[in-house]
Amino acid sequence: MRARGDMLLGSMYGGLALTAAGTAAVHALAYPLGGKFHVTHGVANAMLLPHVMAFNLDSCAERLKRAALVCGVAQQDDSNEIAANKLIEQIRLWTQVLDIPQNLREFGVAEEHLADMAVAASKVTRLMTNNPKTLSLDDIQQLYRCLLP
């Protein structure tokens, strides 16, 4: 019973954090992966996160530096860009350590699916408008392409 209570509390805290922080392009790009290819939302987000962060870097390097400092992966005297890149690299490492897939082909995604996926993701405007940087359909396809080595 204690474990169930702890899971419930953790779930609530996660929901509160997402509500307070807002979500953006990472989540929008994750939806087509879940809907068509049955990639769980958490896995899709983990796969996409470092790539979308790198795309957004020039629009939110200061915010990413603050996150890097909180995570203990950067130093105060690092530039915003260096700290942000350290955070992005740390997230890439965490996804590898946690055995998060790094290749969308494992789920049946192929190059010919990217255009439709990009259109679907772009229609999640409630999330796309929250993104620090505007994404074109080409940008979205390129982000998916990062996961098709």
UniProtKB/TrEMBL annotation:
Gene3D superfamilies: Dehydroquinate synthase-like - alpha domain. Pfam families: ADH_Fe_C (PF25137). GO terms for molecular function: alcohol dehydrogenase (NAD+) activity. Residues 2-145 form the Fe-containing alcohol dehydrogenase-like C-terminal domain. It comes from the Bacteria. InterPro entries: ADH_Fe_C, Alcohol_dehydrogenase_Fe. PANTHER family: ALCOHOL DEHYDROGENASE (PTHR11496), ALCOHOL DEHYDROGENASE 4 (PTHR11496:SF102). This is Iron-containing alcohol dehydrogenase.
